[in-house]
Amino acid sequence: MRDHAPLKTSLRDAFASFDEPWVPRIVGELNGQLVKVAKFEGEFVWHSHADEDELFLVIDGHVDIHLRDRTIGLDPGEFAIVPRGVEHKPSADGVASVVMFEPASTRNTGSVDDERTIEPEDLERA
């Protein structure tokens, strides 16, 4: 059972704890949602999530969320919500630091199997 004391988290420390891109780390959880941090670098795989919406909040760098009909550019302090079922492909020029809010069941590559797929139960904490 989780401790019910308020939780303070340093995003700076969380991002400093790892270097590998596209490997999300858990930094918090609330109401069945996970708060994850990840470093984006280059392009990810096209994918969608049948049952989960995703929120991408850029902390540092620039991220493009490619959709089939347009691209959403995100700078530090900006976020986008990708609704369930919408195919998307995040990418970053250089390294970008991103916070994600998504249900605990969310698989990083949705229904796509890829070398970068991480099952929800295999996620590490930052």
What does it look like?
- This protein has 126 residues and is mainly beta.
- The protein has one domain (11-125): Jelly Rolls.
- 5% of the residues lie in helices and 44% in strands.
- The chain has one helix and eight strands.
- Strands 1, 2, 3, 4, 5, 6, 7 and 8 form an eight-stranded mixed sheet that branches.
- β1 (25-30) and β2 (33-43) form a beta hairpin.
- The protein starts with 10 loop residues before the first helix and ends with a strand.
Shape: globular
- Cα-to-Cα separation, first versus last residue: 19 Å
Computed Rg: 14 Å
Helix content: under 10%
Observed structural traits:
Jelly Rolls, 1 helix
Gist?
It is built from 1 helix and 8 strands. By secondary structure, it is mainly beta.
Layout: helices, strands, pairs:
Layout: H1 11-16, E1 25-30, E2 33-43, E3 54-60, E4 63-67, E5 71-74, E6 79-82, E7 88-103, E8 124-125
